[in-house]
Amino acid sequence: MKRWVNVSAIAILFVFLSGSLQSKTLDFAVAANTIDTVVSEIIIKKAYEMLGHQVNIIRLPPKRALEDANSGRYDGDVQRIFSVAETYPNLIRIEPPINYIHGTGFVLEGSDIRVNSWQALKDHKVGIILGIRFAETNVPKENVFVFYNYKELTEALNNGRIDIGIYPQSNGIYQVLLMGEKRIIPLKAPLEKFDLYHYIHKKNRSLKNDLQRIFTQFEQDGTLAKVRQRVLDISFRRAKKGITPCFDDYACYKSVWDK
Fold first, then answer.
1. Which of 192, 215, 245 lies at the terminal end of a domain, its last residue?
2. What was the pLDDT predicted at 259?
3. Domain boundary among 141, 167, 192
4. Which of 98, 138, 177, 257 is the most buried (most CB within 10 A)?
5. How far, rounded to the nearest angstrom, does the alpha carbon of residue 28 sit from its chain's CA centroid?
6. Radius of gyration over alpha carbons of the chain, in Å?
């Protein structure tokens, strides 16, 4: 089948790419146990493939993933919000953004909790994930409960230990489907939208311009939006059956590049 990123498009890109095309394998850290990263994983794998490189994805607790990427143990982080570059100076943000999330509160159905701003969370017991920067930097500290992964967060919400769990909206939906927690629902409106950027360690700065050219093309021709929707659709269908993403080879997502 034809692909959006077809042979001619790749050939045109290669003419203009100025960086070295010497093939290498790069290792990128990513926050584990969240579905929104899969979109960016698939996008960066394609981008590096177009540059002649291979990518390994290393799943780690969110905070450790960011720290290890910044230290240079890995070649960068798959995706993070804009402000990460301000506090992790060894990481270079690649623009434009390749993904986005809606920071959203999830509650138990029938709880009658109405929250429409970050500040309004201060009157509730709120659960967040350690190392997920959009939640750490925006949720008031009055009644915060910190968890290490979204499974723990979802269980705490279901058991009534917290009033609200803060998730990327797509990941909250995914966790609820995967765990069969039918009582958990998102608040009517997300708290905020966050663009997500790919970050490379400064040792790989020579890749910056080439990656920016590819991501810009993906943005302009609609590839980013189409791939995002298709990845989420596949992930949600699998979650309803209790099946997790095919991280070993990403074969279940191969069709996202079909025209």
1. 192
2. 82
3. 192
4. 98
5. 13
6. 19
CB 103 within 8 A of CB 56: no
Residue with tokens 């790419």: 17
- For residue 155, the model assigns a pLDDT of 95
The per-residue pLDDT for 142 is: 86
The beta-carbon contacts of 188-192 under 8 Å, at least 24 apart in sequence, are 189/116, 190/102, 190/103, 190/104, 191/102, 191/103, 191/104, 191/105, 191/115, 191/116, 191/117, 191/118, 191/138, 191/166, 192/102, 192/103, 192/118, 192/134, 192/138
Burial profile 58-78: b = 16 or more Cβ within 10 angstroms, e = fewer: bebbbbbbbbbbbeeebbbbb
Q: Angle at CA 173, nearest 5°, toward 171 and 179?
A: 95
Helix, coil or strand: residue 144: strand
Residue 2 covered by a domain: no
Comparing CA positions, the residue from 80, 94, 76, 74 lying closest to residue 37 is: 80
SS3 call for 42: helix
| Tally of domains within the chain | 2
| The pLDDT of residue 143 | 87
Within 10 angstroms of residue 57's Cβ, the number of other Cβ atoms is 19
How high is the mean pLDDT in each 10-residue block of the chain (259 residues)?
49 47 90 93 98 97 96 98 95 98 96 93 95 94 92 94 97 94 93 98 98 98 97 97 94 94
Separation between Cα atoms, residue 175 and residue 158, nearest integer Å: 12
Residue 13 domain-assigned?
Answer: yes
69: domain range? 7-101+194-257
Closest CA to 79 of 40, 52, 134, 105: 40
pTM of the model: 0.88
DSSP 32: S
